[in-house]
Design brief:
about 575 residues, alpha+beta, Phosphorylase Kinase, domain 1, Transferase(Phosphotransferase), domain 1, Beta-Lactamase, seven-stranded antiparallel β-sheet, six-stranded antiparallel β-sheet, 17 helices
Length: about 575
């Protein structure tokens, strides 16, 4: 079945990988002819064949096939056949007309295979298989031909190549790969249908899959199809008469390989015709998936023989080595489908399709899961903010905040901070009068429910920390031991206390920096959320307000009056 290109471009890719030099001989790709001919020293004859084929094609344009089909132009040329764009006078539509090349019309094997391809394709009634309109004989030569639906589009190989070109240019999006994988699932289901009718394709590759311009996914070229003896339960086997077995076809020759080397299964490469079943097509599907994921077929080599040797004896290169962004799950599916032994592959094309569909379903649900998780996080954050606001309101309304005793007020604030943020220690520190250090006016330890005070820290010992206090609105140190603002402080003071994370908010008095409200978390490192940081700042503002009110009530002009404390640390730092 053709693509929409009036060309031999997609055909040349197929011909270049076929086993037979004679098949390559009839391509219109001069470079391919040269490569094929150099392998057997027949360049002169091949060039003549090419010129002759072009002349015949030009002469036949505008010719008619009976009263119904009028040849428009040559669309594509293959090794044994060619495809014309023709006009169907009966329905006034364009169709694809496929016929044998004239020089092969007398070849019984090729003719039998051509007729069988038409009959098999015609009996496979599935949206993924092009419908056959008519099978007949053309002109005085009685050359066989058949007509089929003409699908405008491109091959899956071309689509894969375009995707990887965009990927290398950083222009590919996730949708591009998803479209290819969805098309691949459709191919698997089409092949599964053929298997249910007792047909094995045996030449599955991206070049034999057409992606129509309007979403069609068509599996074409059933010329190497094999009829299985047992198509499976509840299947309706095809009936193809005369039986191809009555012709001296290639299947009857032991050890003769049929297919496209870069995509064929090991049993095909070895010519083990009797061993070929639906799992042979599973391998071909795996090869298509490999090309989708990497942009290249599973095996490349310097010659056809080299490729076939690799197919039989070497594992394919890991897809993730060629394209590191490939999900591990897809690589695993692909490599299992490409297993050397049929028994180690997926048992059916349906099973392979299910694996890819399951992965696509999980991927499709991921945004919903992220949305749900984000919603849960937002709800949790909202609850935390609500709890924090309620705590602030309670402390402002409480008698303790209005108490003339500053110690009672500050203790209430440190307890609220520790319990709301669930931290182990909360301390309020004020600068010494000469600003040479800070001293603790209240330190609350939540696990033992104890208050203390009196500890002093000198700026000369922790210059980086003190500089950060003066410059920062808030210090949220996830890991105090590695944060440059708190590293020296953590190693000199906090390390002995097993404190890992710090949240410090400045305390101001009459507009000037007066101290710090320090939250200390023991255990593993902790991320401080934006809400927690805002809560810390709000509490530090309440500390500032409490001290200012106390200072005003005292009527003192000294900003650093000592604060009575029930107990003090017995050591200083």
């Amino acid at each position: 079945m053709p693509t929409n290109k009036p060309t031999n471009d997609s055909s040349s890719a197929q011909l270049d990988s076929t086993v037979s030099l004679d098949a390559a001989a009839h391509s219109s790709n001069p470079e391919l002819f040269g490569r094929a001919a150099r392998r057997e020293g027949r360049a002169d004859r091949l060039a003549e064949d090419c010129q002759a084929s072009d002349c015949v094609a030009a002469a036949l344009e505008g010719a008619a096939t009976g009263d119904r089909f009028a040849i428009d132009r040559l669309h594509a040329t293959g090794g044994t056949s060619r495809i014309w764009l023709a006009h169907d006078a009966k329905f006034d539509r364009h169709v694809a007309l496929k016929e044998l090349r004239p020089e092969l019309a007398d070849n019984e094997v090729v003719t039998a295979r051509f007729n069988r391809e038409a009959k098999i394709t015609g009996q496979l009634e599935h949206p993924g298989i092009v419908p056959i309109y008519e099978l007949g004989l053309r002109g005085e030569t009685q050359q066989p031909f058949y007509t089929m639906r003409f699908v405008k589009g491109r091959t899956l190989s071309e689509a894969s190549e375009a995707y990887h070109q965009k990927r290398k240019a950083d222009e590919a999006g996730p949708v591009d790969l998803l479209q290819l994988l969805n098309a691949f699932v459709t191919v698997c289901k089409t092949v599964a249908y053929a298997h249910s009718r007792g047909v094995v394709h045996r030449d599955l590759k991206g070049a034999n899959v057409i992606l129509g311009d309007f979403g069609e996914v068509i599996v074409v070229d059933w010329g190497l199809a094999k009829l299985c003896v047992d198509p499976g339960e509840n299947a309706e086997p095809l009936v193809v008469r005369p039986r191809v077995d009555s012709y001296p076809c290639d299947d009857a020759v032991p050890g003769h390989a049929l297919g496209t080397p870069a995509y064929m299964s090991p049993e095909q490469a070895a010519g083990l015709t009797a061993s070929m079943d639906r799992r042979t097509d599973v391998y071909g599907l795996g090869a298509i998936l490999y090309e989708i994921l990497t942009g290249v077929p599973p095996f490349l080599g310097s010659s056809l023989q080299d490729i076939m040797r690799k197919v039989e004896h070497e594992p394919p290169v890991s897809p993730r080595e060629l394209s590191p962004g490939i999900p591990k799950e897809l690589e695993d599916v692909c490599l299992r489908a490409l297993a050397k032994l049929p028994s180690e592959r997926y048992d059916s094309a349906t099973e392979l399709a299910d694996k890819i569909q399951n992965w696509l379903a999980v991927l499709a649900e991921e945004p919903l899961r992220r949305m749900a998780a984000s919603e849960r996080q937002a709800q949790q954050a909202l609850r935390k903010v609500h709890d924090q606001q309620r705590a602030l309101i309670e402390v402002i309304r409480s008698q303790s905040f209005q108490s003339p005793d500053l110690v009672v007020t500050l203790r209430r604030l440190t307890e609220i901070a520790a319990r709301t943020l669930k931290v182990d220690r909360v301390g309020i520190w004020r600068y010494d009068s000469d600003r040479s250090g800070i001293h603790c006016v209240d330190l609350y330890e939540r696990d033992v429910d104890r208050h203390s005070s009196g500890l002093e820290l000198k700026a000369s010992r922790y210059p980086s920390y003190f500089r950060s206090l003066a410059e920062s609105e808030v210090i949220a140190a996830h890991d105090a031991r590695s944060d440059p603002r708190t590293r020296e402080f953590a190693n000199g003071y906090l390390d002995e206390l097993s404190i890992c994370s710090m949240l410090d908010a400045p305390v101001h008095l009459f507009g000037e920096l007066d101290g710090v409200l320090c939250h200390e978390h023991v255990g593993r490192a902790r991320e401080w959320t934006a809400e927690e940081q805002l809560f810390g700042i709000a509490l530090s503002n309440l500390v500032s307000l409490a001290i200012e009110q106390w200072e005003r009530r005292r009527g003192s002009t000294e900003r650093h009056a000592s604060v009575a404390a029930p107990e003090c640390f017995n050591r200083t730092k």
